[in-house]
Each structure stands twice: as structure tokens, then as C-alpha cells.
Amino acid sequence: MGAAAVDAVDAADDLELVAALGRGDDLAQLVRAGTDVLVDLTVPDSTEEIVHVAVRNGIHAVVGTTGWDESRLRGLRDALTAAPGVGVLIAPNFAVGSVLATAFAARAARFFESVEIVELHHPDKVDAPSGTAARTAALVADARRAAGTGPSPDATRTAAPGARGAEVDGVRVHSVRLRGLVAHQEVLLGSPGETLTIRHDSLDRASFMPGVLLGIRSVPSAPGLTHGLEAFLGLDETRTRDEQRTER
Fold first, then answer.
1. What GO annotations for molecular function exist for this entry (predicted)?
2. How far apart, in whole angstroms, are the C-alpha atoms of residue 188 and residue 162?
3. Within a domain: residue 213?
4. pTM of full prediction above 0.70
């Protein structure tokens, strides 16, 4: 992902690549290079430090690394309060099709009795469920609560550990790790007499680059924390801009 992002920025006529850092490199290079926007595609153990260095130095950030739990987000919000004008985008997925599929699923979920999520990735992925699946589950759960939709029915009384997947905000999420896959997700919705499947497939990491570039171009004009690329696609901004959700 990092190498693909470097190539994408380098090829963009309106952007200039000023630094490309790897593991163990001195983060002070970001400041010396005159960086306007940082793209963080590292690992959960590193991302928090990298983003906080950027914010402290007035550098906007586009973040595609997972591991941003509520505790880390709270610390980032505090840091951004002390750095007015700096914007940070944290996006679980940069594929425009994936973002659209999640938005469609959230809108459809209130109309169906049952909903479950299956995410499928390559076996080198270090986290499960994926950040995209967790984000989808959260938005689906929000939509169902707002509509007064009850929990999905499930009469299971006995099950092998993990057989029913993980529960994320009351939504069952199942993770598949299989050689040959890249990044795929299905949201399965059902009611008596009908089912609806919303599926997205990323077949190559090139699918993420338009979203990365959109984030780079958009985040300087969006101070504060934005969670999800949806805000920059005009998809229900009241749900995706973090500060608007907090105010509400």
C-alpha cells in the first residue's frame, strides 16, 4: 500500500512527493521536507506516534492504518483541539466502491430483519475483523437503532467457539483469510421471503489509490477529525464527520 501510494502521488500532476519514509526512519524528515499532508499506511503499533508528530507540527494526515480504538481517537481529538486548522482523515477503506457499499448497507439495514457481514482478505492481514467490517457494522447498528429495528433473530444455543463470528455493535461479523484474495466484503440482509447481498471486491491495491488521492486533496480544507472517506464523497456527512457526530 505504501509503495502504491508513493507511485500514485508521484504520478499526480497537482501533487508533489516530498518524502517517502520507511520503518525506523526519522520522523523529523517530515518537517524538514516541508510536508503539507502525511499519508500513514503503517501498522497499528506505529500509527499513533506518527499521526501525533504530524499534528504537533501542523501537518494534515490521511490515515489508512487500523488500530484507532476509542481511547486513541480521544487522544487524537485532544491533540487536534490544540492544533486548530489541522485536519486528520482516518479511513478504514480507500476504495470508493467499498465506501459506497458500506453506505448502501447502512441505508438498507433498517428495512431487514437480519443482517450479518462476511469479510474476506489475504492471509497476511494482521487484524480481524477488518477495519472496514467494523466500520460497516457500526454504521449498520446506528441505522438500525435510529429506526427502532430489533436485533437479528438467532436461536443458536450451542456453538463451537467462533462459529457465529464476532459480535461488533450487535452485528455478527465473520472473517475469512485465504491465499489469492485481496480485500472483499459481503453484507447479507434478510427478511421473510427475500434476501439482499451487497458485495464489494478489491482485486488489486490500485483500487485504493483514487481514495488516497481524494483524501490528500480534501483533508486540508477539513480541520479536525474526519472518520471515513464518506465525508469527502458527499455521503451523509452528518454521520461521517467526527466532530458533527460529537456535537449531536
1. 4-hydroxy-tetrahydrodipicolinate reductase
2. 18
3. yes
4. yes
* Residue 200 · residue 169 · CB < 8 Å: no
Nearest to 131 by CA among 193, 173, 87, 178: 173
Same domain? For 66 and 20 the reply is: yes
Check pLDDT > 80 for residue 248: no
Question: Do residue 117 and residue 32 come from a single domain?
Answer: no
pLDDT of the residue at 236: 56
Range of the domain at 131: 96-152+162-203
Single-letter residue type at 77: R
Tens-digit pLDDT profile for residues 173-196: 999 999 999 999 999 999 999 999
Phi, psi of 15 (to 5 degrees): -125, 155
Q: Based on the fold, state whether residues 36 and 73 are members of the same structural domain.
A: yes
Alpha helices in the chain (DSSP H): 2-11, 28-32, 44-56, 70-81, 96-108, 131-147, 209-218, 230-233, 237-240, 242-247
**Spatial distance between the Cα atoms of 209 and 216, rounded to a whole number of angstroms:** 11
Residues facing 203 on adjacent strands: none
The rounded distance, in Å, linking the Cα atoms of 13 and 19 is: 17
Q: Which residues pair with 88 in a beta bridge?
A: 61, 225
Quick check: is 121 catalytic? Answer: yes
> In this structure, what are the phi and psi dihedrals at residue 233, rounded to the nearest 5 degrees?
-105, 0
Cα–Cα distance for residue pair 220/241, rounded to 1 Å: 14
Is 200 tagged catalytic?
Answer: no
